Amino acid sequence: MKRFMAGIVNIDRSLYVVAGSVLAFMIVLTFFDVILRNFGHPITGSMEFIQYGGSIVFGFSIPYGTLLGAQVVVDIVTEKLSPGKKRTVEIVTRCVGILLFLFVAYNFVIYGFEVRRSGERTASFKIPYYPFAFALSLSFLLQSFTIFRDLIRTVKGADDE
Predict the structure, then answer these.
(1) 128 has which bridge partners?
(2) pTM
(3) pLDDT in tens, 91-100
């Protein structure tokens, strides 16, 4: 189980590095596109790269953000609960989160296969859409694993490592 937990952390970090690299590329691309646009030579297809890069940045950064606990927590109600009830609420919300992200991942897989079958591609570079759907599906699957890791830690009572 420790190997599984460590694997989740390593994959989360790897996806986060990919997200950061894509974001850096998007910044550089936007910078040069704005400058070249002023000279009348915009970069063809830059909007395609920005749009699909944004989906990768968004999707691939979510699991690591969850790993760090970077999400906003509104605990107005739970702070008034006893520690046992608070822990129960945390366990239930994590279970719901796992199911939600598994549902989203599953639907991205279905969407990816539909888009692959239809052959949809981007306008400028004819890049197929389906790899992005599958990448987001992988990201949300990993998100559910990350929440599962947190659930195990909550059940064991190891909230702070």
Answers:
(1) 121
(2) 0.86
(3) 999 999 999 9
